[in-house]
Every structure is written in structure tokens, then in C-alpha cells.
Specification:
Distance between the termini of chain A: 75 Å
Strand content of chain B: under 5%
Low-confidence stretches of chain A: 632-658
Strand content of chain A: under 5%
Shape of chain B: globular
Number of helices of chain A: 27
Order of helices and strands of chain B: HHHHHH
Helix content of chain A: 55-70%
Low-confidence stretches of chain B: none
Helix content of chain B: over 70%
Number of strands of chain A: 2
Radius of gyration of chain A: 30 Å
Number of strands of chain B: 0
Structural class of chain A: mainly alpha
Oligomer: heterotrimer
Mean pLDDT of chain B: 83
Chains: A mainly alpha (685), B mainly alpha (166), C mainly alpha (496)
Order of helices and strands of chain A: HHEEHHHHHHHHHHHHHHHHHHHHHHHHH
Distance between the termini of chain B: 64 Å
Radius of gyration of chain B: 21 Å
Mean pLDDT of chain A: 82
Chain lengths: 685, 166, 496
Amino acid sequence: MNFLEMLALIPLFPAAGALINGLLGRRCSRACISTVACGTVGVSFLLSLGAFYQLLGRPEGQRLVEQELFTWIPAGAGELSSGAISQFLVQWGYQLDPLSAVMILVVTGVGFLIHIYSIGYMAHEGGYARFFTYMNLFMFSMLTLVLANNFVVMFVGWEGVGLCSYLLIGFYYERKSAADAGKKAFIVNRIGDFGFMLGMFLIFTAFGTLDFTGVFGLVETQAQAGVLASGDATITAICILLFVGAMGKSAQVPLYVWLPDAMEGPTPVSALIHAATMVTAGVYMVARCSALFVLSPDAMLLVAVVGAFTAIFAASIGLVQNDIKRVLAYSTVSQLGYMFLACGVGAFGAGVFHLMTHAFFKALLFLGAGSVIHALSGEQDMRRMGGLRTRIPATFWTMMVGTVAIAGFPPLAGFFSKDEILWRAFSSSQGHVLLWAVGVLAAGMTSFYMFRMIFLTFLGKSRMSREVDSHVHESPKVMTVPLGLLAVGAVVSGWVGIPHLIGQYLHHLPQYFEHFLSPALAHPAAVEGGHASEGLEWGLMALSVAIALLGLWLARRFYLTHPALPEHLVSRFKHTYTTLLNKYWVDEVYDLLIVNRTKDLANRLAGFDNRVVDGAVNGSAWLTRLTASVSGFFDYWIVDLAVRRSDLIYYLSFPLRRIQTGVIQTYAALTIGGILVIVGYFILT
Amino acid sequence: MSVTDIVFILTAIVTVGSAVVVVVSRSLIYSVFSLLFTFFGVAVLYVFLGADFLAGAQVLIYVGGILVLLLFGVMLTHRLYNLNLTTERFQPIAGTLIAAAVFASISLAAFKTKWKLVGEKELEPTTQQIGEAFLSSYLLPFEIASVLLLVALIGAAMLVRRRTDV
Amino acid sequence: MNLGNLDSLTFFYPELILLGGILLVVISDISLKGLRDRVNPLLTLAALLLALFYTLQTDHGSAMTLFEGMLALDNFALFFKAFMLVAGVLVLLGSLHSEELAAVHQGEFHALLLAVTLGMLLMANSAHLVMLYLSLELVSLTSYIMVGYLRSDRLSNEASMKYILFGAVSTGAMLYGFSLLYGMTGSLDLFAIRDALLAQEVVGFNQVTLMLVVVLTTAGFGFKTAAVPFHFWCPDVYTGAPTPVTAFLSVAPKAAGFAILVRFFLGGLSQPAGEQWGFISGIDWPLVLIVVSVLTMSLGNIAALTQNNLKRMLAYSSIAHAGYILMGAVLLTGTGLKAMLVYLFVYLFMNLGAFFVVTVIFNSEKTFELQDYNGMFRRSPFLAVAMSIFLLSLIGIPPFAGFLGKLYIFGAVIDQGLYWFAVVGALNAAVAAFYYMRIMKHMILENDDRPPTPLQISPLNRALLVLLLVPNILLIVFWSPIDRWTANSITLFGGL
């Protein structure tokens, strides 16, 4: 079978699943619904695997497959900024290159496991068919996003995942907080989408096409011909606008506020959409447009700074959160910051590498948290957990693997990807030692809050109520098996990208991952540094492991050996603590500055509506009444037949309808009068 | 003024005059009988235009068919003589104005336009020409006219269906 | 190429099938007393579908005239023929479970539906004034009967009566215009008329007379398309007629009216030339139509604002839409014509959909009043959502199909530099949004105190609603086939 020719089927299967469950779900048994939902995603995963291997089998230069299904928008010609006329033509097309190949494997692979897990997690919940319909729809949208071969189709996927995210966050819509969180996500994302759209418009006016190959090909040739200089203003504007879109979707400061609230959705949703896949769409988009970004050092710097700031900002909030899912949510925001940091310093490959490893261990952690919540009958506050290690061992051990991975201990996945980013932040020509320092500090915090979570949840003494305690149970196989598989992924997924530094001692193991990706990505002119010696690289690597160890030690001291210490610190740094606990008051500030102002404006507009718009409508009524009184003149004088005394007379009562008297002679007279007026006008002119 | 002209003017007076009676008469019977003269007048006008077949058809269909039908309808209607067709709101001014404007524009067009004239033509029977046209170049309109009549028949059948059968 | 009577039959299958259908339905209505209620709809459906099949199959090579120059067969005509047949099928399906029609014997209804469809097919490709008049009359006469189909309903009878009287006036005016045209050119053939006008240089008072011809014939076409000031019959007739008939009238004969209008003005009164037609010297008939178009959409929308009867509101709304469609016809450009075809195509689905929801609600509620729609969302979410989609589509909000229509129309107008015309259109669209939203508000936001009782929808009606929803939602995705089809359909036979 030639899987490369069946690209379109990969998103199509989940779409079919969504359609079946959406239309027939209410009549089907739960087994049937979950079989359809998981089966379709499973098939997509197999197709993706097949396509990936066949792509791998091709020579390096030919790893790009495009498939155009049909012409979507043939909207005619448009004028470009250069004055040329270009046809605006959008094909509904998919493309597979190393970058999208990695993405579809992550999306379908992790997505499939999460779908399986959901069977167990949602077993006792209502809205089963609805849940799986949305999940499948999400898979379709996400796959469309990453497989698209032009910006418009990508935007369709982009909006599609946003819609599904909104629907799934608000899944328990009868709960007000869930409905509000859904709305918040939707609105904040609109801001980003606006940037994305403007970016797209600008790309079309600049290049006359929205196809990836077309745009990036043009950029490359123009850059080589010297038409496009590095730092070109249009390119910078495009990049910044696109990055605004990425900031919304990937929850970067200042548009990150929706993601923590998004934890109102069911936990598998948090794992799939708000950790592993959708939120990484922004990183994917920036990597996809790397050809544009490398031409704009300013935009790159912005990306790097926003990424680094988000990484440490979110990590610091994560230090003190008590809700197990919120810790993970802030951790996700922070890790996304790392990915952007990588992109910003020109290491797009490293960013995508971290995206992949993060998908494994963060999905694992979320599902593990879900398993804990499941075991504790819905309890999410870590202060009322503890001592669960022996009670739910499978969950504990898998989560432990995830924690070690994210904290960055070798040889687990997180170590390789995070270390790659830190090294590039330090060594790249676009990097800076400050960016590196921020990254290392955030890494220490990551280690601290992750182990804090493990210690509070699984170790120490139980702080559960007796009621909850008596019901603690390990999750069913259908949940723990995906956990186990993801744990394997969290260990091994980093091994495809072992840096040269270590690889040279392991039979010269090459850096597979970046090598594979490199045809699909652009590389800044002088990014391959080598400014630093091998010794320095070893030293930095050791330092980042050491700081992770420091985090671990602190967490152990605070929450295992000296439980009184946190209290002491809290009372000492009360101000800092409350600020962190309240997430730097950002939500409150937004409420004050933006939300309330918008409400004011809305109220004022409502006033305008009442006075002016309704006034205009009444005015038109007046105008019609005027015409009506003129026609009433005719009406009064014109012959009346029996027809007149009919039920239609009722309509006469309303002044506006006066012209429509119901008397046929009036109509005839008015018509002929109308003809005469038109003829008269033309005879006179 | 030749004889032809005199005949034409007389015919025109009869046609228009009887048409006026049709409209203003208070008795339906009078109206219907005046219509007889209008129809005949129109038939004579057709003869003046050399349309002999049309004149014959006019007499046969309108006088022989439609007028008789109208008469039956009138005779079978109750309250024949008390019917007041003009309403209390009859107001001639607006009607006259519109009618005058229409008349003015039409007659202006009739007199001032340069028509495409075929010139003097020998009077010859047209029946054969019409018959041939109907079966050659005008075959389709001829057939479609029959479909139109079929639809009219269906409509008529629907109208006269007994209410109990609905 | 001109084909004679016998050769033309090869290209005349759709019409012949419909004709056969009429006869079969009439015969089965008389002879199959027990089965006729089941057989007749099936026969009608089969005839329409078969005709549609042959229409889509027609491969005429190049444009030509049939029956000694009576009909012009070109892509433009094929578009409208397919359009009419699809409309016929949808209206037939919509009428099957209509409580209004269920009360009366339906045998003739199906025969009439076939006859009116036949008339519209002929309208779409008439190239001769006699055919033009005959087919128009066939459509009108059938419509009169269909409007008055509910014989025991006073409103229905009265509507029919008014329709006949008003129709007589308009058709009379049109015929008078034809006679003037014949007097000036000595021909009834559209292309011969055009050639004669081009040959003789229309000067002096002949310009005025030609103008009179334009206005008088516009009366006839305006009557069919319900354009101001020939629209007066429309609200009363739409309100009185059975709802499926109203739905039909608001779409199909209107489209036929536009077909014939374009054929007459572009085929008969314009110089044929590539992308842009020119009008025959001195006669600025597009200006007449622009004025009519502006009046039509403004009056339709403003009058619809305060209607409380859904049927009447939709009647006015359909007047307004005729104004938008006319915008495309008056530009004399290929893009304008194409925009008109796209608009008609999406209008078919959105307007039939809205009327169909009204029919379904009338079936169980026996009301057309807006306040009786309160709380519909709680009673039948499906129906309320479907109606909302049709209405949003009518407003022209993306991603629904109506957006495409507005996009093409306004795009074509702006292409011609008629910015003020586009602004008037856009303002009108904003006014229209007001009353469409009002319906949605009543259905979704307003609830009355009664506990919601679920609304019953028959499976057939539910399926038909889905069938109508699909194009409204998906056309935005499958955009290019429509684009290609309409771009292909603007080839208008010039008789050259």
C-alpha cells in the first residue's frame, strides 16, 4: 500500500467517527461509541505510521508529498503590494514533510492512547457520545492543521481546534465556572486569531500566494537574489502578527490566562488538547514559518524573550498552586515558553523536539493526575491527598517517570530536549547568556514544583477525609495501560535526539531528529555556533542537572523531611507568596482594565442602540406612514369591490401596511403610475 | 374622403362607443350586449388590416363562444337587476388622470415613432399561410398553446369539483 | 446553428418527459382511485428527476436554436433548467407532508406542479417573443390555480383572484411593449430584433418609444420577479397561498423571470461582445433597472421590518432578495451575470429552507404569527437551529451559503465602479439582518410560561430539512464547483 497517497484519509477517519457518533451516538451503546471513536483514531495512527516509514524510505531531498483534493476558494484576482495582479486561489490540500510527519505521529499516537484512557475515565459520566464526538472532531481539526499545505486550510484547522477546545472546556456546561472558562478561552484565542489572519492577509499581498511551498520558495529565492534583506519590515510585521496568533493558541504571556482555567474540562481533554497537541500548534506554526522568521532578527528576539519570560513566569506561579491540575497547567505554559525560546534563538528543530517529548510526558502526567482524581472521587486539592504510593502504585510509578522526565534527569526524554534548548540559547548567535540563565532558573523551578506535586500526592501521610479514603482504588486497566505506554514514551522518546556531545561516545550515534527535520526547517545564517568548547558544553549540561537536583532536594526538604518549613517561609515572605498564589493578580488586572471597560462600552452601545438605531427604525416607520397616507389618498378614491370586505382588511389596521391595501385596483393604478413616472423621467431627460 | 374611410370611421365610433357603454352601464345585461358590438367592430378592423382569418376567428370565438358564455353567466346570476357595480367611492379624477397619461404616451408613441412599414399589400387570403406557419416555423408555440389550454382545463376541473369530493 | 422541428426533439427530452408526466398524473388521478395518492407523487418525482437527469446530460456542443429559432439552447438555459427542476423536486417533497394541502385532493396539484415547471423550462430558453409570452402565460396561469388551490379557504381564493387581475395588467403592458417593438423592427425573433435595432440607428422619438418598450416589458418581467413597483400582488398572494406554493413562487418563477429578463435585455437589446455587453445607443435601460433594483430591495426590507406574520415577512424578504439579484443583471458584465447565478443558486436553498420551517411549524401549530414562535428552541432545538442557519444564510453571514451570494454580487458591482450601488446594497443587508434576527430572537431567547411540549416533525420533513441544510453549510467548502458551473453558464447564445 502506498500510504503517502492516502494522506487525506488520516484526518478523514476521525471526521467520519465524529459524524457517526454525532448523528447516531444517542442511539448506540457506550461500547459501540468508544469502538468507533478509538477505532477511527487508531486507523489514523496506523496510516500515519505507514506514511512516516515510507517518507523515511525516500531520499532526503524528496521528502515532501503534496496532495490537493479540490479547489476550495477561486476568489478571483487581487492586487499585490508590488502592483502585480495575482489569482487568489486556495486548494484544499495536504502535505507531508518531516515536520508534519512528526506532528501527525505525535497527534495520532498520543491522541489514540488518550482516547483509550477516556473509555475508562468517562465510563460513569453523562454525555458520552457528545464527548467522543468532540474528541474525534478535534482530532480531525488538529490533523488538518498540521497536514495543511497552505495557510488557509491551516487556519481552518486552527479555528476547528479552537472550537473543539471551547466545546470540551465547557463540557460540564451546567457548571458556571466551566462555561465561563470555555468563553474565556474562546475570547482570548480570538485576539490571537486576529493576528494570525492579519498575518495571512499580509503574506498574500506580499507574495501573492498562501501555499507553504509557494511562499517559502519565493522567500528563499528573493532572499538569495538580495531582494529581501534580513530585517525587511514587511517580513518582520508578518512574523510578529503570526506570533501573536501563536501566543494565543500556545498560551504565552500575555495571552496565557485561558489555559489554567481550561482545566475545567474533563482530564483527558486537558491531556490531549491543553498539553500534548493543540497548545503546541503555535510552536508548530512558528517552526513551519521558520523561513520567514530567520529573515527577521527582531521578530526572533521577540519570540525568544516572550518564550523565556513565559517559562519562568508560569513556573514561578506553579510553585505554590494547590490544585494538581493547575500545577500541570502552569507547567505546560512554562514548557511552551521553552519551545518558543528555542524557536526564538533559531533552534526550530530543538523546539519541535521538545514539543514531541513534552507531548509524551505531559500527557502522561495529566492522565496520571486524572487517575489520581478518579481514585479520590473527584478530589483535586493536593493538600487533601498524600500517601497514595502504595494505594495506587501503577499511577504512582508512571507519574514518577513523567516527573523525572520533565525535571530533566538523564537519560529520560526531557533531559535531552531541554538541554538542547538551553545549550542553543547559550551558544547560538541569536541567543544570550541571560536567556540561558532564565531557562536554567525555570528548569530548577520545574523540578521543584513537580517533585512537590509527587511528594504531596503520593508520599507522606494521608490527609484525606475518611469518606474519600475508603473509596481509593486503582484505575482500571483501560486507564493504566495507556499510562504505561506513555511512560515508555517519556523514557525513550528523547533517544532519537541525543546530542553529538554524548552520541560520540555511543558508537557515534547521530542526532537523528534534527537531521530528519532539517529539510523542512530554515536555519539562521550563523546559528551553528561552536563558539564554545566541548568542556563548556559538558559543564553547562552538568549545571542543568545539578539545578534539577537542587529542586528535588528542596522539594524533599520542604514537603517530606521538614513539613513546617513552608509555613515558616510563607509567613516570612507573605507578600511574595500571596502574589504567586494569586498568579500575580493578572486575571484581576485584566478584569479591571479590559473586561470591565468592554462591559462599559457594551452598555454604552446598548444605549446607542436604544436611542439611535431604534430611532432609525421608528423613523422608517414614519417614512412608510407618509407614503401610506399618500397612497391612502388613492385608496380612498378608488373603486371598491367585494374583495375589500375580507380578512385581509385586518392588515389595513397597521399603518405601515397601509400601502398594501389589499385592493387590486390600487395595485394596478400604482403600478401603471410607476410605469408612467419612469417613462416621464426618461422623456424629460 | 373615400367610402373606405367613412366605413372605417363609423366602425371605430361603434367600437369605442360600445366599449364605453360596457364600462359605464349600470346593467350587466346592457354591458354584455354592448360587448357584442365591440367584438364585431374589432373584427371589422381586422378586415381593414387584411387579416381575414383573424376576423373570422374573432367572430367565431368571441361572439360565438365567450359572449354566449357571459350571457349564460349573467342570466343564471341572482339579483340581476339590483346589482350596483359602481361603489360609493367612485372617483373619476384620479382614474381619468391616469387614463389620460397612458393615452397620451401611447398615442404620442404611435404618431411620432418611425415605424417599420411593409407598404401597400394586395389583399389575399391568409388562412393557408397561417395554417402552414402553425405546422412549420410556429409548430412549438402551437403545441405549447395546447398545453396552456390543458392546464386551463385542469384548473376548470378543479374549480367545478364538488366540495364534498375535496 | 438552427435546428428544425424534428431535429430539435433530441434536445427536448426534459420538456417531453414533463409533458408525459402531466398526462400520466392526470390519467392516474382519474383511473387509480385507490392508489392515486401514492402513485401521483411518485410519478411526479420520477418525471422531475428524469427530466433533471436529461438536462444534466444534455451535451449540445455549441449553443444553438431549436424549433426554427423559437428556443435558444445554451449553458445559461441549462443552468436555469436544472435550477427549476431542483426547485420542483424540493417543493414536491416539501408539499407531501403539508397539513394545508393534506386537506384537499392533491391529484391536480401534481399535474400543475409539472406544468409550471415545464413553463419555466421554456421561459429559460425562449428566444422568440411569441414563445416568451406563451411560456410566461403558462407559468402564470398555473400559478394562479396553485395559489387558489385551497378552495374552501377564503384567503387562498382571494389571493388567486388578485394574482389573476394583477397578472392581466402586467402581461397586458408587456404585450403592448412587444407590439411596439414589432412595429419598430418588423420581427418577433429576439436576435432579428437586435440586428434590426443595430442596423437602423435608433434616433429621435424612436429612442423614447424604445424606452417605453423597456419599461412596459419590465412590467411583465417585474411581475414575475416581484420587483418594485410591480410587486403589489406579492405580499397578499404569498400570504394567501398554501405555504409550499408560496415557497415555490418565491423561488422558481422568480428565477424564471430573471432568466427571461436577462435573455430579453442582453439577447435582444444589447450589443453582444465578449466580457462586457454594450447597450444599444442612447437607450440607457440599465439605469431603469438599477432604479428598480434599489427601490425593490429598500422597500422589501423596510416593509419586512414590522411584519409579525412570518409568511408575510418572508414575502417582503423575497422582494428584497429580488433587488439583490437584479443588481447582478444590470451590470452587463460576465461577472455580474455569474454573481446573479450564484445568488440564485444559494437563494434556492436558503429561502426554501426558511419557508419549509414555517410549513413544518404550521403543520402542528396552525399559526404564522411571530409570537407563537416563542420558545421554539426548547420545543425543538433542531428546528430552531435549522431556521437560524437559514436566516443567517439569508442575511449573508459566513460561513453559510448566503455569504457567497452577497460576496459575488457586491464584488461584481464594485468591479464596475458602482460604489454607491454596493453601499445601498450593504445598507440594505444591514437592515435585513434586523428582522431576520428578530425571528431568531423569538425562537431562541423568548420563552413563554407554558411548559415546552416537544414539536412533532415527520421523518420525511426532518430528512428534507437536513437536505436543505447541507448546501447551506457545505457550499462554503465546495465553492469551486459552483464557481466553475456558474462561470460556465454565463455563455448566452447571441444568435450569431
